[in-house]
Amino acid sequence: MTSQGHIQKTAPTKRRRRRPRSLGGLRVRLLFSFVLVAALSALGTGALTFQQARTGVLQQSQDTVVNQFRQSVDAAVLELPSAPGQEELDSLVARLAREHRTQQWNVLATYGDLRAASSGLASVDGLTSELRASVETRPVAVFQRVRTGNHSSLVVGLPVTYSGDGYTARTLSGLTLYLIVPQKSEQAYVDALVTAVERATLPALGLAALLALLLARGVLRPVRALSKATRRMADGHFDVRLRVEGTDELADLAQAFNDTAAALEESVTELRRMEAGARRFAADISHELRTPLAAMTAVTDVLAEETPGLVGDTADAVHLITEETLRLARLVDDLMEISRFDAHAAELNLDDLDLAESLRRTLAIRGWPDDVLTDLPDGIRARVDPRRLDVVVANLVGNALRHGGQPVTLTLRRAPDEPGVLIEVSDHGPGIPESALPHLFERFYKAGPARSRSESSGLGLAITAENVHLHGGHIHAANRPGGGAVFTVELPLRPPGKEDPT
After folding, report:
1. Long-range pairs, 27-34, Cβ under 8 A, ≥24
2. Coil, strand, or helix at residue 481?
3. What is the pLDDT of residues 373-429, one digit of tens each?
4. DSSP-assigned letters across all residues of 373-404
5. Which of 242, 369, 410, 474 is an S-S bond match for 254, by CB 3.0 to 4.6 Å?
């Protein structure tokens, strides 16, 4: 028998519900990270490229316009008198605008109170005060870019200077010229750059998403295999192994998982073997003890009949041996019952019962009707094993009578939330120590020194819990707020997986 088969037989697994895969899984995070990095890279590169290209285009256009304007003004003002009049100013701006008609130059000239403009420009109100002040006070060309709506224009201010008999670039003459040039071609070029960046970003994002999916697939394949293998190991399949490929960290992880699984399989196999041996030993011992116990019980029965005629130490000895023999017989019966549970040989013989009637019968058989208060409404029916239900109730009521305080109450009612029934046994004794509550249903556990010296074997509550679980129910122990202990048994109306007889 393989290790896997042995585990399936001795520890049947329960189907675990897989957790839903969240939207923030590793695949989504990888995809988001790649797309984010690609987007930032594309946008950053595009922004830098756009900034450099835009600066270069505008700088080149600006230098070209300023140089052309200076050269045209230098050539035109040679024919002007030192104190030009309105006619000379009109002729100057008309000449400059005509020579650069294709570039859509708009020229404005000022000299003292005189103004002359092309294309209907009659004032300098559209120019900033800083630009005008700089042009009127400094012998250098000044320019700025002005944006109006979706259009931008280059504004150049050029003071005309003179020296001696002619015009030079040293002394202000009072004549000032302004040039306003729309930058439509430059704006079109910049818009084309923006469009190119946008078009380049989308393919970059798509490529990043594709690379992220491919990388996620390569990374997540061994991760998914590890997750699947871990779930199989959690279900008891300790022979599961992962394929080790490559020499990277994922390969190291797969190898570490295989080593761990091998060590765990070896340990669990050994534990299973020891556990099976212990179970067989307990079952064999219990079985072998039944024959001599039967003879001893017969002898003690004969001695018990003779007890009234005995006196002194002889009577005490006969009484002691009779009690201890009965206790040993109960212990052997409990061990045999536990062995059947361990071997998964315990079965339910179901019957449709009126639970109130069944519980009253349990009390009557043991002579407890006068010792136990009952609240057992008729008409509550369920499919249960009568013998195992009798064991459950008898163990709980017997424990309450021996270790609790009067009055002991047995209550039956329907479960409030789901189809099922609740059976409660409560007493008014000292209660159960809080430290003992988690261990009450463990085998051979006894709560407190007083119970450790009692005739109880410590298997009664363990058998009770096994019988309840066999029905698909639950058992719970707690302390009452006013003192005393309460045991609550929850049973379904029908054990799961058990169909009604046809």
Report:
1. 27/213, 27/216, 27/220, 30/212, 30/215, 30/216, 30/219, 31/209, 31/212, 31/213, 31/216, 33/212, 34/208, 34/209, 34/211, 34/212, 34/215
2. coil
3. 999 999 899 999 999 999 999 999 998 998 888 899 999 999 887 789 999 999 998
4. EEE--TT-EEEE-HHHHHHHHHHHHHHHHHHS
5. 242
The dihedral sign for the CA sequence 456, 459, 465, 468: negative
Q: What is the dihedral sign for C-alpha 392, 398, 401, 407?
A: positive
Token pair in block for residue 151? 């259009």
The gap from C-alpha 403 to its chain's centroid, in whole angstroms, comes to: 47
Helices 249-306 and 3-10, packing angle to 10 deg? 50
Which residue carries 């003992």 as its tokens? 436
pTM: 0.46
In whole angstroms, what is the distance from residue 170 CA to residue 308 CA? Answer: 149
* Contacts of 495 by beta carbon, 8 Å cutoff, 6+ apart: 348, 350, 383, 384, 470, 471, 472
Burial 217-241 (b: 16+ CB within 10 A, else e): eeeeebeeeeeebeebbebbbbbbe
Q: pLDDT tens, 266-296?
A: 888 888 787 777 667 666 766 677 677 777 7
Is the separation of the CB atoms in 282 and 339 below 8 Å? Answer: yes
Instruction: Give residue for tokens 């999916």.
Output: 213
Q: Where are the beta strands (DSSP E) in 29-182?
A: 106-111, 114-117, 142-148, 151-163, 166-182
Which amino acid belongs to residue 366?
A: R
Give me 29's structure tokens.
Answer: 């995070």
Rounded distance between C-alpha atoms, residue 179 and residue 118, angstroms: 10
DSSP β-ladder status, 485-492 and 420-426:
antiparallel
Please give the structure tokens belonging to residue 378: 């008729």
Tokens encoding 260: 């761990």
